[in-house]
Amino acid sequence: MNIRIILADDHTILRNGIRSLLEKEEGIEVVGEAEDGREAVEMARKLQPDIVLMDISMPHLNGVEAARHITSTIPTCKVIALSMYSGKKFVMEMLRAGASGFLVKDCIQEEFITAIRTVAEKKVYLSPSIADIVATESIRQAVPSATAGSAILTPRERETIQLITEGWTSKQIAAKLRVSVKTVDTYRQNVMEKLGIHSIAELTKYAVREGLTSLDE
Question: Was domain 3-141 assigned CATH 3.40.50.2300?
Fold first, then answer.
């Protein structure tokens, strides 16, 4: 039986490259491609793949939140994180979200195949540089909890932060999340009160620092 894969990355060239690589491998099938985190979640629910290769930095819903949605609602689907960055915050947040693997985007091609086959066997795969980070962090804290800022926010509040910092209006966010404008305004107010933030500029800085969004989107 083939290992069924969804590619989630907002860069078409990268998706095409990975698809081309995977299509040469026996027993691996790319069943879908998503351009943002929200599309990845919806596609995973519809197609029920074995693995989602998930970029961390994506518009509308970042890879961490998308991974959290997928792993909590589709237990049979595994997530492998893809990132240009190997900083401790990105790695640990993705693993806490339920990812079973983490690949740095400049890894050699063969590593993609190794990671997929490893995770398909219900094991964890980490790029060598990532493994050192995880080992060090595990020794320091033993299964650490989320950072204080992220821990006190609900998933909806984190989603709202990302959309606000991407320039979406309350009306647009309400339509995207299928809630009322009043509810979106409540999310914004709650976030600012919890974090002690008083402006969109401060909120944007927080979102970038916490990996909820990035300035290069």
Answer: yes
The CATH T-level fold of domain 148-209 is Arc Repressor Mutant, subunit A (1.10.10)
Rounded to whole angstroms, how far apart are CA atoms 154 and 131? 29
What are the domain boundaries of the chain?
Answer: 3-141, 148-209
Give, as one character, the DSSP assignment of residue 196: T
pLDDT tens string 115-173: 999 999 999 998 887 776 665 555 455 444 444 455 578 888 888 888 888 888 889 99
Cβ atoms of 67 and 54 within 8 Å: the answer is yes
pTM of the predicted model as reported, rounded to 2 decimal places: 0.70
**pLDDT (0 to 100) of residue 144:** 42
Q: How far is CA 154 from CA 65, 68, 99, 139, 203, in A?
A: 11, 12, 19, 28, 16
Element (H, E) at 176: helix 170-177
